[in-house]
Write a structure and sequence with these properties.
By secondary structure, the protein is α+β, with helices and mostly antiparallel strands. The chain has four helices and seven strands; from the N terminus they run E-H-H-E-E-E-H-E-H-E-E. The protein is globular.
């Protein structure tokens, strides 16, 4: 793996985000979803290589004392190279530095690869949401709810 940089994603990045999003998800976020997140001040962070190619990204929304991971993607052609773990590590650091206690996410029950990556990183299943996601042929798919407890800083 060569040199990689994390970057704050902005409105000008939405087109390149959508190229990855639409390849990665059966029901991808829309341009409007990303604009809404940016307008709301959510944390959109990307991982790019030395050629400024976007390899993956995450979207975090603060909710009281925890961050909610709304979207997390590694571009298909860059999967299996450790980028997900780099992004998760950076996400954890971002949330910890802002004194959040945990990160919460939902993942499709059928997305075994993502579930394994999240578990390997330290997320635990804390529940299920029935019929949470839209699925093929007007059906719905359950979500697994997972949480990662973050290290807390001692307050003096």
């Amino acid at each position: 793996m060569g040199k990689h940089d994390f970057c704050k994603l902005v409105f000008a990045d939405v087109e390149r985000i959508l190229l990855i999003e639409e390849q990665a998800h059966s029901h991808p976020w829309t341009r409007g979803n990303f604009y809404d997140s940016l307008y709301s001040g959510h944390e959109l962070t990307g991982l790019q290589n030395s050629q400024q190619e976007l390899l993956g990204y995450f979207v975090l929304m603060p909710v009281v004392d925890e961050m909610h991971l709304l979207d997390f993607v590694v571009a298909r052609e860059h999967q299996g190279q450790g980028h997900a773990l780099l992004l998760l590590e950076h996400m954890s650091l971002c949330a910890s530095e802002k004194n959040f206690l945990s990160v919460l996410l939902e993942v499709r029950i059928s997305n075994r690869r993502a579930i394994e990556i999240y578990q390997r990183y330290g997320f635990s299943e804390i529940g299920r949401r029935k019929s949470y996601y839209p699925a093929a042929e007007n059906t719905r798919e359950d979500a697994i709810v997972m949480r990662l407890e973050l290290p807390t800083k001692m307050k003096l």
